[in-house]
Amino acid sequence: MNKEETTEYVEIDPLLNMPVRLAVVSSLIKLKQADFAYFLKVTQTTQGNLSHQLKKLNQAGYIGIIKTYKGNYPHTICELTPKGLKAFEEYVKAIKKILYI
Amino acid sequence: MGEEQSFTTEQSLELISNMISKAKDNFRENSFLFLLWGWLLSAASLTRFLLDITAEAEYSYAPFPIMAAVGIVITLMYYSKKSQGAETHLNYFLRKLWTILIIGFVLTVFISVHQNTDPTVYILIIEGIGTAVSGMVTKFTPLKLGGCIFFTAAVLALFVPGEYKTLVHGAAIIAGFIIPGYLLKNLNE
């Protein structure tokens, strides 16, 4: 069985298999919490796209979003949920299987 | 990063590793807080000692609550001005630990003043707990040693005459907060 054939049998979470979403969840593995500006900096994506991807992760229950104010400006803070942590662990397990690691 | 395109497994592993390495612990930034509290508390100790050996001994406890209030205000301003961005689990733990210890510190001073007893020994133990735990979780040896110095100083303070307890406290602060604080700060450069 070659590598390409194996990938067909390993299920990869489609929600995490997108660069911005995976970047957000990977960052939150090490972080207790991070704000919108931090993710904008590390993902180097647009505000609109980041906002859209965070909403998707939040709807899936992978991250929690806390909306507060910092001075007069809205401040969005994200935290990883236990469901998000489990999904990330499964994702890493799946890609390791594909890569024979 | 673009919109919703998926990517290869190799790319995803690389991305995970890259994101985790970007989310580094910034514990070294905390040198400011060790130095702030180090200088404030050592100044409080020295002032109290000077008041103890003069006629103003009745109010000699005053430098501690005053310096603690100054420290709390500056610490709160530091956290509010600091762009939060991201906080690691380690820094979150340390922030909560020291918040609780500061509450314990304030209560200890308040209760001791109320009971007309000397708080030095208990304060040294509180400072020793915070410093030793900070050193252990960050694996920073000067803070671990600082914690040991605080505990030793707490025992030593039991056996020295009243007004000299604060000098023992001041010396412990220099060894436990100020020296490790400068070593941390130098690691930044």
Labels describing this entry:
heterodimer; A: 101 residues; alpha+beta; Arc Repressor Mutant, subunit A; 3 strands; disordered N terminus; B: 189 residues; mainly alpha; 7 helices; 2% strand
Description of the structure:
By secondary structure, chain A is an alpha+beta fold. Chain A has one domain (14-94): Arc Repressor Mutant, subunit A, CATH 1.10.10. Chain A contains 5 helices and 3 strands. Chain A has helices spanning 3-7, 19-30, 36-43, 47-59, 82-98, and strands spanning 31-35, 63-70, 73-80. In chain A, strand 2 and strand 3 (73-80) form a beta hairpin. Chain A is elongated and about 50 Å long. Residues 1-7 of chain A have low confidence and may be disordered. Chain B is an all-alpha fold. Chain B has one domain (26-188). Chain B has 7 helices and 1 strand. In chain B, helix 3 runs antiparallel to helix 4. The radius of gyration of chain B is 20 Å and the shape is elongated. In chain B, 30% of the residues are buried. The chains are: A alpha+beta (101), B mainly alpha (189). Strand 1 of chain A pairs antiparallel with strand 1 (86-88) of chain B.
